[in-house]
Specification:
The chain is α/β, with parallel strands linked by helices. It has a domain of 340 residues: Alkaline Phosphatase, subunit A. Helix content is 20%, strand content 15%. Helix 4 packs parallel to helix 6. The two termini are 20 Å apart. Its cofactor is Ca(2+). It comes from Hucho hucho.
């Protein structure tokens, strides 16, 4: 969205669009130990090699420099010598974050507004989207993906090797066993999920996935000539997503943690930290490092019930509170002009698309409709961020808030709809944002136990919240009643974005996706020539058993916005 789109709103000038200087936490001292430094073998080429590392379900409080009880010396060192992104936003669940990274677009512009892509759904990243790796291929890059895909696979056309990656090694579904690569989509619906390119990698299971994926990245680096062609590697760890599994040697340092889930989770994070160290070692060893950009990002907030921690942020994975959407992120590179600092620039996961295409020497403007901004100037040179607003999402299919209505939204917006937006310092949530507790670190053995009510935040049913995130990053002081002027303006911003949305793609599960029909493995089951049969309307049963019809067509949004415009909002 262009900055100029904000003009014409009388209250926006009051939104304090500058960013205040505040620290969520005081970073711990970084370990003195440094990563081995190999001398690169030849002059620096151009453009840079890009290594994008994503972890799964790692919480805001699950990294050393945020004061965590988990030790991450490698990540701490890389972040300390680079730029920490402390105003960085992702999506609350897996598929949306990955789709926005790969397309540079909000979910409302790809049809993936609702939930995740299930293994048996005939759904994937829309075919009309030109992906980030495709743009990098056009710029002359060799592109490789290792790890979790989770962007659909019902057709071969959906696979990573058809969406811009020269090679792929990893799992297509959202969650697998770390050793057997068995993935289940409900009781009795299980299959093997480890793939090499477009074929099932039957003989390569048995090794812990964090180690297996790291080994593959090192092989790619060893086989490629860093002076001949720039390299893009997207390393998408399945860690630290459930199931909670790790080799025993990583658990031993955390034997003092009373909470078993936290102990296993911490071990998994430590395995990831070691993996990143090994990847960085290989970058130096094989001559990539001096002309490389390493980006680290989580995909969503942590899940406290599975060992994660977002403390002191509110909420968890799957929610639009800060604990669900504020991510861990940093950039490490010898090419950074201003290093060893903390950036408060507003950054969103969609911004990596134009930023990396720009670094590659490509032209992101060739891709119409991007929601991301080129942030390299803000990250590398501490220039002002071009981003003033983030649409977290509008999900018309999520369970409507019973207390929400068009009247509650001042006739501007139906607050029963789950939506969230941040403009400047202000963040608005409508509908049901998800579980809104502040969950303290799991230091006691019986979690959640009787102390679960320590931070319970019970309030009357409502459907609108407003926070000044710069002054109140923990979302403890709802200002919706005190500042109805700001609420109205942000509701109008939701309407603005809503007009540009496309129909939600959330088809019913296809029984042909059963892995038993595919020799026991998850994989494509629909021919590329077969047409999709998707009716655009999804029926969902409410808790009382009644069907609640939620339209997914543009006509729904037109009717809503016609009503709004008739009120001259």
């Amino acid at each position: 969205m262009a900055v100029s789109a904000l003009t014409g709103f009388s209250v926006v000038s009051l939104l304090s669009l500058g960013y205040l200087s505040w620290d969520l936490m005081s970073p711990n001292q970084v370990e003195n130990e440094s990563i081995p430094n190999f001398r690169d073998r030849s002059p620096v080429p151009h453009p840079p090699h890009i290594i994008f590392i994503m972890t799964d379900d790692q919480g805001f409080n699950d990294i050393g420099y945020h004061g965590s009880d988990i030790q991450t010396p490698t990540l701490d060192k890389l972040a300390a010598d680079g730029v920490k992104l402390e105003n960085y936003y992702i999506q609350p669940i897996c598929t949306p974050s990955r789709s926005q990274l790969i397309t540079g677009r909000y979910q409302i512009h790809t049809g993936l507004q609702h939930s995740i892509i299930r293994p048996r759904q005939p759904n994937c990243l829309p075919f009309d989207q030109v992906t980030l790796p495709q743009r990098l291929q056009e710029a002359g890059y060799s592109t490789h993906m290792v790890g979790k895909w989770h962007l659909g696979f019902y057709k071969k056309e959906c696979l990573p090797t058809r969406r811009g990656f020269d090679s792929y090694f990893g799992s297509l579904t959202g969650s697998v066993d770390y050793y057997t690569y068995k993935s289940c989509d409900g009781p009795g619906m299980c299959g093997f999920d480890l793939h090499e390119g477009e074929t099932v990698a039957w003989g390569q299971g048995g090794k812990y996935s964090t180690h297996l994926y790291t080994q593959r990245v090192r092989k790619i680096l060893a086989a490629h000539d860093p002076q001949a062609q720039p390299l893009f590697i997207y390393l998408s760890f399945q860690a630290v997503h459930t199931p909670l599994q790790s080799p025993r040697e990583y658990i031993y340092p955390y034997r003092g943690l009373g909470n078993v889930a936290r102990r296993k989770y911490a071990a998994m994070v430590s395995a990831v930290d070691e993996a990143v160290r090994n990847v960085t070692y290989a970058l130096r060893k094989y001559g990539y490092y001096q002309n490389s950009v390493i980006i680290f990002s989580t995909d969503n907030g942590g899940q406290p019930l599975s060992g994660g921690s977002n403390w002191p942020l509110r909420g968890r994975k799957g929610t639009y509170w800060e604990g669900g959407v504020r991510g861990l992120g940093f950039v490490h590179s010898p090419l950074l002009r201003r290093k060893r600092r903390v950036s408060k620039a507003l950054v969103h996961i969609t911004d990596w698309y134009p930023t990396l295409v720009g670094l590659a020497g490509g032209n992101a403007s060739q891709t119409e409709g991007l929601d991301g901004y080129d942030m390299w100037g803000a990250i590398s040179e501490e220039k002002e961020s071009p981003r003033l607003e983030i649409l977290h999402n509008i999900d018309p299919l999520y369970n409507p808030a019973r207390s929400g209505s068009l009247q509650s939204g001042y006739g501007i917006w139906n607050t029963a709809i789950q939506a969230s937006i941040r403009t400047g310092d202000w963040k608005l949530l409508t509908g049901d944002p998800g579980y809104g507790d502040w969950t303290p670190p799991q230091m006691l053995p019986g979690f959640p136990g009787g102390w679960w009510n320590l931070e319970r935040h019970l309030e009357p049913q409502k459907s609108v919240w407003l926070f000044n995130i710069s002054e109140d990053p923990y979302e403890r002081y709802d200002l919706a009643e005190q500042r109805p002027d700001v609420v109205k303006e942000l509701l109008a911003r939701l309407v603005f974005h809503n007009r540009t949305s496309v129909p939600v793609r959330y088809p019913s599960e296809d029984p042909r996706g059963d892995p038993d029909l595919n020799e026991g493995a998850w994989g494509p089951w629909v021919g590329d020539e077969e047409e999709d049969h998707w009716n655009g309307v999804y029926h969902k049963k409410t808790k009382d058993g009644k069907k609640y019809k939620l339209s997914k067509t543009k006509s729904f949004f037109r009717r809503l916005n016609t009503r709004i415009m008739s009120n001259r909002i």
